[in-house]
Amino acid sequence: MAHNVLFGNIAQDLATEELYKKAQTENIETLWDRKAALKSQCGFGEQGVCCRICTMGPCRVSPIPGKGVQRGICGATADVIASRHYARMVAGGVAAHSDHGRNIAHTLHMVSSNGRYQVRDDKKLLEVAARWGVSVEGKDINAIAQQVAEMALNDFGKPFGNLTLPGSVPDQRKKVWEENKILPRAIDREVVTIMHATHMGCTADAESMVNLAMRTSLTDGWGGSFIGTEFSDILFGTPVPREIEANLGVIQTNMVNIVLHGHEPVLSEMIVLASEEPEMKALAVKAGADGINLVGMCCTGNEVTMRHGVKIAGNFHQQEFAVLTGAVEAVIVDVQCIFPALATLTQCYHTKFITTSPLAKITGAIHVEFNEKDAFESAKRIIREAVENFHNRKPEKILIPQIKSQGMVGYSNRAIIGQLDRVVNSYTHKSGSFEPLAQCLVSGVLRGAVGVVGCNNPKVKSDYGHIEIIKKMIANDVIVAVTGCAAQAAAKAGLLSKEAVQYCGEGLRKVCELADIPPVLHMGSCVDISRILELVGEVAKILNLDMSELPVVASAPEWMSEKAVAIGTYAVSSGLDTFLGVTPPVTGSPEVTDILTNRMENWVGGKFYFETDPLQAAEKMLARIEEKRANVEKLNIQRMCVTGYDELSPGF
């Protein structure tokens, strides 16, 4: 096939570039080749003004007011069409993340003392039980877990009332939601409401549609994703800081290499346990390998690295490139962000492409359905498929880039508090809380914080936006939290290492040295953005501020999925300005664009910024952080009037 992509332009990462050159030599198609083959993408679709909801269309209307076709057959304008499309993207993202949470809840309901799924974090379970109002006195830990799971599952479809919100939501924020009528109800109800409202003949008002989308998005961030994170911690253990390696160099020539790719840890946890069985190790040696080497990709990679130290092979754009090494025996996937192209690509090598979920069957893949009730045996069966494939390798096709970086992962909120407690000044601050972090923001030792999250997108150079924004933030004393593929980009660039303090401003460097943390905190997978929400909410409560008043912003420099639209919308609805490096398909509607980038701030205190240049985005983020510092500067002045000095200048 013809390759139309210039070498050196696809990725920030050198391992990816090296393997793309190999793909060109071997005439192998990759995502960048498929993008180039599309040539110009549909301008109507890119601006969100192509409607295909009913079969009277598709209707493409002009994005220019007063010119061309202004209405679809039913009379829908560009504003109506773009708002419907936006809302459906939010609903799709919420459905994916929340179904992830539902699956974890069902697994929690299966725990037993002698089963493969057990309660690994009793403390976390009791904390969650208290929030759900579950009585624990005199009850077996498994009975408590099952009742908590039932309470959570009820929040997906309860007919009355609102979502059971975590205690980290400040009262001021709840009031904002109530005033704007976006206080979320049951998770499934909100998704269905969006699908109903966007049906032909229903909502035809952009402002109303975006309002519905905001309410639906909140069921993800503070509902489905929150459940997914907390219940994963209960089942598999709350992450603690650990050192790992990242990039395609973690694939090893003399090992059975298995790539774990997807999002739900229910499968990957069992794969990790099964791979450690003497029986499986012996099978690998018998096949001629030195052992089994599990490596992670995308959010499953984040899940297993922060709980088990499994090495990170790469992020979204590298899933094909792991196969291109010629040294991967199997790619095992569950759900979300999986290229169907892997089925064709793996046929060019010896690699087995194994799907495991009934929600993600792919033509051309080997389907080995994972059964939670027989989880361990299912995992061993899948590993056996990989091990028995080792002898089919073709040595002449193997090329493993010798590129990898070290970094620290596993900064759950409990872990962050633990680091803060190591240096807390006990006579001025409480241990066991985020108060030291809050006071660092107040004093200005830290200018602010940013969450850099999201995917990769071939519309932009892979990882470039993530890395440039992160470097600019930490150089200006802004601490960074990362999740998902952005976290893996940071890992590959060495920014999760404690040595990355060399890129920091003086204030952030001091905080990192005292707390013994890197300036970029790996907080987990995409659903674990709920950890960031919890952290921001708790800091806001300590300072008696709304979340929108804090010098905190969010950024998705390379987003591509519906999940990212849901995430961005719940971040803004929670009061956090959100900077998008890929423009969403709404620009064909002046009104929807104005709502998202302007009017939303009047409703909820946050708004979207569309900025495709990461360097300009970084400057705007810093400006917004400094603008919002006025709220905490008032607290600093009040404190200095009482204490007579700035107690945080030398440290905590």
Rg over alpha carbons:
24 Å
What is the helical fraction, as a range of percent? 40-55%
Number of strands: 16
Q: What is the CATH first-level class name of the largest domain? A: Alpha Beta
What form results from the Cα inertia axes? globular
Mean pLDDT: 94
Structural class: alpha/beta
The protein's oligomeric status is single chain
Strand arrangement, major sheet: 6-5-4-7-8-9
Distance between the termini: 60 Å
Q: Provide the domain count.
A: 3
- Poorly predicted regions are 642-652
Classify the beta-strand content into a percent band: 5-15%
Count of helix runs:
24
CATH topology of the largest domain: Rossmann fold
Query: What profile does the largest beta sheet have?
Result: 6 strands, parallel
SSE arrangement:
Elements: H1 14-25, H2 31-38, H3 43-46, E1 50-51, E2 59-60, H4 78-108, H5 122-132, H6 141-157, H7 171-179, H8 187-197, H9 206-236, E3 242-246, E4 256-261, H10 265-275, H11 278-286, E5 292-297, H12 298-308, E6 311-314, H13 319-324, E7 330-333, H14 341-345, E8 352-355, E9 366-367, H15 375-387, E10 405-409, H16 413-421, H17 435-443, E11 448-452, H18 464-475, E12 478-482, H19 484-492, H20 506-515, E13 520-522, H21 529-542, E14 552-556, H22 562-573, E15 577-580, H23 590-604, E16 608-610, H24 614-643
Parallel strand pairs: 4-5, 4-7, 5-6, 7-8, 8-9, 11-12, 11-14, 12-13, 14-15, 15-16
Antiparallel strand pairs: 1-2, 3-10
Helix pairs in contact: 4-6, 4-8, 4-9, 4-22, 5-6, 5-9, 6-9, 8-9, 9-21, 9-22, 10-12, 10-15, 18-24
